[in-house]
Fold Methionine aminotransferase.
Amino acid sequence: MNLTSKLPQVGTTIFTQMSSLAAQYGAINLSQGFPDFSADQALLERASQAILHGNNQYAPMTGLPVLRQAIQDLIARHYNRQVNADTEITVTSGASEAIFDGITALVNAGDDVILFDPAYDLYEPAVSLAGGVCKRVVLKAPDFRPDWSEFASLITDKTRLVIINTPHNPTGTCWQDDDLEQLWQAIKDRDVYVLSDEVYEFIHYQTQNVSVHRHHQLAERSMVVSSFGKSFHLTGWKVGYVVAPEAINRELRKLHQYITFSTVTPLQQAIGEHLLSTPTASAELSPFYQAKRDVLREALASSRFRLLPCQGTYFQLLDYSEISDLDDVAFCQYLVKEVGVAAIPVSVFYQNPPTEQRLIRLCFAKDETTLLSAAQKLARL
Ligand SMILES: Cc1ncc(COP(=O)(O)O)c(C=O)c1O
């Protein structure tokens, strides 16, 4: 047998590696991005009721009507954008599936796709499986602002898609309104689409989240992706969605119907009912996570780590250059084995990581006691 890998560069992700090292060494796991607390009991009840009451067969390919209706309302409430629940919303098995469907639907062999590095690890493999080539704008610490003239210099007739992500994993930064306008100005006269990964849309510490939903012209070219895993502390449910104009959605659904066909029915039913009955839940998420962020930041304030600004997501970046000269992968291995805290090296999110950068990412979607114990260990360094 001579099996040729389609993704020769891809191995087991650092998230899996760090989580298994954390288990092996009994370390506090602030590496992988998932909450260690329970979701709303009422939502869990709805899911078990949905199963017991027979919502157990295939859902419609595009998503259960109750959930698509609830998403339509959510977008109208938060962004004052009216979308058609039948033609412009597709429910997917996590944001990951939506991203994969969207990239596969739009990118052809030889197309260029522009990414902003550091970038979520799913984008590049999906682009390369579609035969596309990633071009990267590097975001630099400490503020990770996009350089729009560099971006403009990468656009050519081969550019097909731009992938953006705000609030941003791993840096915890958020774009400003002006960024979306700059993006629009750079692509408006070209046949270029946008995939906007907004899975942390309700976890931001600014007065208003910057979203493609609010930029009408950009929205007409975009697939906006989100995830109830993030918004309801249920990463294991893998229920996400994409909002896109009908013509783009039609192409994306062609992928969705053969990749998963439909998403777990009782979970869609539960989330749809829950969103309709507790419309304030999404607005409560930012203050909830802001309190956790502040607990962690305060507990590390007098340590030798330098805390970078955190404007959104549940990730906090720490600069450890005063503590060690190790590269960030080696430093994270030292942390998990010797200090008892698992973190993620930020270099893994770059194709060409800046060599001088000494940054790690901590996930603060954890109980306060977990955060304080981890901070106590880190503050000893
Ligand atoms: C930026 C970003 N996009 C997409 C995803 C995937 O979301 P889901 O678990 O809903 O597939 C994640 C999950 O961590 C993420 O951080």
Summary: The CA atoms of residues 19 and 29 lie 7 Å apart. Residues 41-277 form a domain with the Aspartate Aminotransferase; domain 2 fold (CATH 3.40.640.10). The mean pLDDT is 96. The pocket of pyridoxal-5'-phosphate is lined by residues 33, 94-96, 120, 165, 169, 197, 199, 227, 229, 235, 238, 240 (CB under 6 Å).
